[in-house]
Amino acid sequence: MNDESDIGWLPVLEAGPRPVYLKIVDALADARSNGRLQPGDRLPPQRELARLLGVDLTTVTRAFSEARRRNLIDATAGRGTFVTPGEPEEPILDLSMNIPPAPAGLNLPALIRPGIEGLLKRSSAEALLSYHPGPGSPVERAVGSSWLAATQDRLPVDRVVVGSGAQALLTAILLSQTYEGDTILADALTYPGLIALAEATRRKLAAVGNDDEGMRPDDLEQAARRHGARVLYLNPTLQNPTALVMSEGRRRELARMADKLKLIIVEDDPYSRLLAAAPPAFLNLAPERTFHVATLAKCISPFLRTAFLAAPDAQAAERIAAAIRGTTMMAPPLMTGLACEWLRNGLAEEITAAVWVEARARQMIARNILPKGFAASESSLHLWYPLQSQLRSAELADIARRRGLAISPAEEFAVGHDFANGFRLALGATANRERLKEGLHSLASILSGAPGSRLKI
């Protein structure tokens, strides 16, 4: 322990939009990370630090408060402030969790209580307290058919299945359509839930090459024949993580190739409601071989835990229902009932529209703050930032974590070892736009190699 105050870590507080108190915290985090400050080292008193930095005492007090919250420092009465021995706390600005932002102009928590009260008045409490095993009640399936009608004409109810979120329905598809050891084809960067699901169910994943329009049909044919695969997973609209919207032409090419190869298509479609005009879904283009999954989690809220599946036919829907009975048993009746109530009375559309407004505003904030070069739609919940450097995205994520930010590196989405270097930013989890601006300014400072970041990209 060094009881003498060490001032060699002090930052040069250059001009810029990032708040001064956060620049001080960043300097502390960097100094602790690179060993310039060691656990137990004592910091100067706040008044002395304010004098050395040429700032007011309030700024330093605010910086110390933030640093304590991140577990960077601690204070001992009568002795001073010291660098802590433990690891920093989890980042307090979350740019990794891909959830809808609080809908503009709506108080979603305030809508839940009257929604449930109204549901209880109009529904049988006994039914809500009972099991609803399998594909969902006839009413829930009918509501699901109406929601899915955004992609085409209303489906027959016997082709619709209700599940407790997209992951439960994807699990049911894999269990009903594949066997242990089978290979599923997907993009080289794909939804992490699929990666985890394949590992849990002992299925294999194989990457298919892509270009600026999305997955390449010629590479799909080669991969399918090479691996003997029968299932193709696609997230063609605002793809996670790259935010790509696959063109209609490419979709038609892939649909023809899937037909030629007799592939089952699993279309994961959580985001199309966030586009003013999404291209045709594979459910339209290849209905006889497509399992289409549409969750409410990304356009309304994950708390509802409700998603709908469109199967190629009634028999396939029954196989899905059997897999649900063997895994999650059913969708939660109360949450599913509330979701269906909001879908019937139009509130779901109102919430989705408000989420769209807020997502659009947050994308504009990102465009105004971040360096150019990222990929996103004007109303998507996330963006993809490619890295043109030798630094891997996992290393960048670690640097960001020490600066109080959580981002998602490419490694979290990778199928195999050959994948693009970059990271995903999710814009919805921060509580408000001001906090988002704060996080993006910090990230922009890292990306630009600002003093103290030690990073050149």
Automatic annotation (TrEMBL):
Keywords: Aminotransferase, DNA-binding, Pyridoxal phosphate, Transcription, Transcription regulation, Transferase
Coiled coil feature spans: none
Gene3D superfamilies associated with the record: Aspartate Aminotransferase, domain 1, Type I PLP-dependent aspartate aminotransferase-like (Major domain), Winged helix-like DNA-binding domain superfamily/Winged helix DNA-binding domain
Limits of the HTH gntR-type domain: 18-86
Domain of life: Bacteria
Keyword NAD found: no
InterPro entries: Aminotransferase_I/II_large, HTH_trans_reg/aminotransferase, PyrdxlP-dep_Trfase, PyrdxlP-dep_Trfase_major, PyrdxlP-dep_Trfase_small, Tscrpt_reg_HTH_GntR, WH-like_DNA-bd_sf, WH_DNA-bd_sf
GO terms assigned for molecular function: transaminase activity
Family (UniProt): In the C-terminal section; belongs to the class-I pyridoxal-phosphate-dependent aminotransferase family.
Name the record gives this protein: PLP-dependent aminotransferase family protein
